[in-house]
Structures are given as structure tokens and as C-alpha cells.
Amino acid sequence: MASMAAAFIKPSNPFSKSPITFSKAVTPPIKLPMSLRVKSNTRRRIRVSGGLIDPDGGKLVELIVEESMRGSKNREALSLPRIKLSRIDVQWVHVLSEGWASPLTGFMRESEFLQTLHFNSLRLQDGSVVNMSVPIVLAIDDDLKNRIGDSSKVALFGSDDRPVAILNDIEIYKHPKEERIARTWGTTASGLPYVDEAIKNAGNWLIGGDLEVIEPIKYHDGLDRFRLSPAQLRNEFTSRNADAVFAFQLRNPVHNGHALLMTDTRRRLLNMGYNNPILLLNPLGGYTKADDVPLHWRIKQHQKVLEDGVLDPETTVVSIFPSPMHYAGPTEVQWHAKARINAGANFYIVGRDPAGMGHPIEKRDLYDADHGKKVLSMAPGLERLNILPFKVAAYDKTQGKMAFFDPSRPQDFLFISGTKMRNLARNKENPPDGFMCPGGWNVLVEYYKSLVPADNGRIPKPEAVAA
């Protein structure tokens, strides 16, 4: 990760708009040692004062126009030069519109883009630094740049040819694809999924500006009720009297090892003196590579985990994080952590090789498996967030269940990789008892069964998940 420079370039428009303020009485989080070791039998349980962490920049940015203005903004959009958004572009509009990327007020202008690429951070007008490790940008081609001409604003349209947003006070600048790829992924090797999907064939120009999103982004896929905005999540945590929120991101099904980690984290926070720590189970809901389990199957599986009592519904909030996935390892995991600050989390669980993937050419991991958690512990702008490293869980053959790995008896543990889990489900074989709750495992088996086309050639979707 690039180190912090002594001076940052000042943004040309450093968040000059006045976003909606979302204020709460907040006690600064307690900074914990990396191990978060608590010995409840030897240490007296103390009472701690907690609350929801402030959003980056002190304000939660919300870019959706008031309902009374939507008609006029829609008409205005019809009169402006048009940019047609890709599926991933719409996901980024969603991210920006709800404040996951606070204090950004729209797609990045060049100064913000360069700070992100070179510093993984943005410096605000007051001199404070917030983390921002992945560019949130919109690409256009030469022809569209020429058609925009001297216009100071453009309209963003969806695939259905309906206006999605207006981009104001625009700035158009060159799209340095090679530099962007090299600095974000640490390699320009061919075969990076997000690069192939969103960058390789994108235009040679980037356009930044302040967003006015005409209506909340909806997908009408049966999952919109799980897509809570940061403001809605903060309200939910407040209604549950949360004095700490710990976030866990997944792009895979939840097995009992994950559940053990999450329940153990809550136990340790209680032992530290928190009264009601709440788990934010926040699966990634944007673009993922082709071999990942699709979102609607993952949500159905997560619901079964709650129904089977593996996680407690009273202390767990399941909500979709709308960001696309880069698979950019230590660079991207900073974005994942930063976004959860804006959703109200003051603790973040980081796993082994977070946001990582296999090298697209060589037979090895693309990133060092330990670098993600090390980078998070040092990342500029994330000092307020308590990082909880993933404790290694494996199947303990002596207990017949998932347990934390004991290096003194390695022969007793069975590591079931994601590849092995997928192969078992694909072949309709059962994992060892205690690896995953039966309801959750049945969903996974059902998913792989669905990959075999029916007689009509269509791959079925799961039944609607429970409310």
C-alpha cells in the first residue's frame, strides 16, 4: 500500500455540497490490540461506554432528491446529454447515493481519483483524512465526450432508457487504464475479473461531478427489502439499543466456522463490557465473478442459518452491501472496512486473504494471505475502526463440529476449503455433521442442482426468501 504523503492535492471541489447531516451522540471507539484477547476468568468485567461511530467527514451523504423534486429533475434529465450506464455503473450510483462512500458527493473528479490511486485516502478541507482505496469513476468514450461538449451537466440513464441521475459541475479527464489497474491490483496480468468486465473495454475518458439521484435504486429482484442504506442501518441499530456494531462481509455461504467466529466475537465484546453488540452480516451484493454463488442463493442460505438458530436473529442484522467486487486484496479490503464505518460499525472482522483471489496466470494466490489484516491495522483514515482478525476455524474430528484450530493437535482438524465445499454440494455429497446447518447446506445443494438446465433450457431461480 502506498504510504501517506506529507501533502495532498486539494480537491477542486472538496465536497462543497451540503449533504444531509446524520448526527448521533457518539463515544469514540476504544482501540483494541490486534488479538482482542480477553480472559474473562482473570479480568474483571468493566462497563464501557459505546455508541454508533460517526460517518466519515462527520456527515452521512445522501444524494437522492426529495420526492417533490423528482418530476422536475426527470424532465431536466430528458433535456441533457445522455450517458447510458452499465450494470456496474448503476451499482456505483447506488453506493454513492446512499452514502456508503461518504463524504464523496458523486463520481470522482481527477484530484480525488489521483489521491485514491496514490494515497488510498482523501484529505478534506479541514485537513482531516478519510480512507478511500478504490476509484469510484464513470468512463465515457471519445464520441460521447465530443457530444457533451461545453455542457456543465449530463444525465445518466439506465438500461431501460429511464433517467437515473443528473451529474452536475462535471469534469472530464483522461482515463489512465494501465496506471489504474497497476495501482489498484498490483499487477496488469490478464484475467482480472473486474478489469475484464468494467475497465478493459471502457472509454478513454472519466467524467466526475456531483450526483442528484432521481429515485432510490431498486432492482426488483425480490431482495430490495434486504438492501438497507447506511441511514436505515443506523436507525435499526439504534432501535435495537446497540452500543457496538461489528461487521462481517461474505461473498460465500455461511458455514458453522463463520458462525463460530461471529458468536465468539459477540461473546468477547460482552466480556469487554458492552451491553448489546449487534452483528451486521453484510454480504456483498454487487458484481461478482462467474464462479461465485449468486446473491439470491446466498441470501436464501443466510436466512436458513438464522432460521436454524446458528445465528441469533435478535442480535443479527442481515443486509446487502451494494458494492461491486474488485478482488483487489489489501487495497480493496480498505474500501470494505471504510464503507462499514459509514453504516455505523465500529468493529470490522477481517479474514484470511480478504478480497483476494487466485493469480489469473500463475498457480498461486494473488496476494499474501496476511497482508489484508496488516494493512487494515495501519491504513490512513481507518484509525477509528477496531479491526478484528479472523481466528482460524476448522472441523474438529474429535468433537464433530467446527472449532478454533489448535496447533498442538493438527491431526484432529480437517480444513474444508471453499473448492471442496462446492465440489461436495455439486456432487450432492454431505459434509461432516456440524460443518453447516442442514437447511443452509440444502440451499447450496439446490443451487448447484439448478446449474443443470431444465427441459426448457432455463436455469431456475430459488423461491423467494423469507421476509
UniProtKB/TrEMBL annotation:
Catalyzed reactions per annotation: sulfate + ATP + H(+) = adenosine 5'-phosphosulfate + diphosphate
The keyword Nucleotidyltransferase is assigned to this record: yes
Domain annotation Sulphate adenylyltransferase catalytic: ranges: 225-447
Protein origin, superkingdom: Eukaryota
One cellular component (GO) term of this entry: chloroplast
Top-tier EC class: transferase
UniProt keyword annotation of Transferase present: yes
EC number(s) stated in the UniProt entry for this protein: 2.7.7.4
ATP-sulfurylase PUA-like domain span: 53-215
Keyword line: ATP-binding, Chloroplast, Nucleotide-binding, Nucleotidyltransferase, Plastid, Transferase, Transit peptide
Localization: Plastid, Chloroplast
Protein's name in the database: sulfate adenylyltransferase
Species of the source: Cucumis melo (Muskmelon)
Lineage of producing organism: Eukaryota, Viridiplantae, Streptophyta, Embryophyta, Tracheophyta
Gene, per the UniProt record: LOC103491225
